[in-house]
Amino acid sequence: MSIDIFEDEDEVTFLAATNVDKPEHSAVDISTKAFWAKPSEEREQIFKVLRETDPVSWQRPVEDAVTPDPDDPGYWALTKHADIAQVSRDHETFISGQGVLFDMLPPIFLEMSQSFLAMDPPRHDKLRALVSAAFTPKQIKRIEDKVLVAAKETVDAIAAKGSVEFVSECAEVLPVRMFCELFGVPDHLRAQTAAAAADVVAWADPEILGERSADEVQVEACSILHEIAEEMIEARRANPTDDLFTSLMNAEVDGQRLDDFEIGAFFILMAVAGTDTTKHTTSLTVKAMTEFPEQRAWLMEDFEGRIGPAIDEFIRFASPVMTFRRTAVKETELGGRKILPGDKVVMFYPSANQDADVFEAPETFDLSRQVNPHMGFGGGGIHFCLGNQLAKSMLRAMFRELLTRIPDFAAGEPELLGTNFMRGVKRMPVTFTPETS
Amino acid sequence: MRLEIDYSRCTGLGICEAEAPDLFEIQEDGSLSLLVERPTADSRAAAQAAVAGCPTEAIRIVED
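YS: structure for the whole thing
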């Protein structure tokens, strides 16, 4: 595996975290397993305390890390919207190249799955540019018809049933299908791709792990996705196709093509980012609409006129991606705290999305919200979610179908994913009056 | 009102085009074209939405 390609002269030397000039670990501890096992409403009560009393708190290392580091002194926890925006937009001070996940994960997993997510300029920009032209407004408009057909067919399959397991029968179907179409994943590999992509982000969920260890599950899921990528590469060497995958294979960065391993890592990043986030936002929004029926009714009074801003509220309220990390490489200040080179800073997006300095009545699901600079796609800067417009296009199409065809849908109790990365729903019963054709 | 783009910050994401398609356009090669350098007052709200929406703060409205 030629990972050497990443080691050019622009790479910074690894900066170890230090204990120098650090306060006591915060008494409001958000590193415990118990904290991440709580429902998000209870976590929010604790984030609120931090936002109000200790917005940039020094925390002990995450409990039960997948691969604990005994020398890890801890991290700065960012809970305010403004601080997360500052860090996200200053990629020269806060880098991604020393890892972006809150949990400590095995290096092999990170190499297999992170691609440009965990890189800095200039390499980051060059790799991201290979696909970014496929996600511009015009390109998304061009595939809109496909999204509409896929959303319609997804709801066709459930509308007469009256009762479904919503996540597997609806929420995940549309994003998985669109990802597979964009990247040209053949039909016989789609189910396997979706299952492995879901496993990649489920590393701390006890049910999904079963008897296996977290790194076993992750590395296995990544290996499956690399094998799928290999198979797709082989197929395209014989018969090039008109999809993003073939353009990745043909693209050159600094005069060199990506090798198979790099293509595989890129594929994993896209598979996870493109499927799980939208799937969980869909489920969590169905739940929110069940709890706030007046919001659903208000949206339905003028769906086409109101859905645009409403989607931003779906995303703010769901906040499916909960954490990302950066590492400081210069001394700086954040919320009055001195940050030293090597310090880890972790951004808690659901907390930013409940920040009362930015959002009026943040606890309310308010589809008429006018000012909504939520951080569901990140806090801005060069790593801002590439697929944001595709995600919005899918949510719009899906909720148009659901709200016009089975408008009285009601969600039961969701079974939540137990991780500190993704706020997700594993299963959720949904009932409705069956559509009569 | 005049629009200024800092091309060194632009990543070609196209949120500006989604907010103000009459003012901004991402080209096939991923680069941004400013369609109107001096928008009329009618386009002010759209231009402001583009400035606010840009995650890399690459767009500026200059009043002159």
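YS: worth flagging: Chain B has one domain: 2-62.
IM: good catch. Also Helices of chain B lie at 15-19, 44-53.
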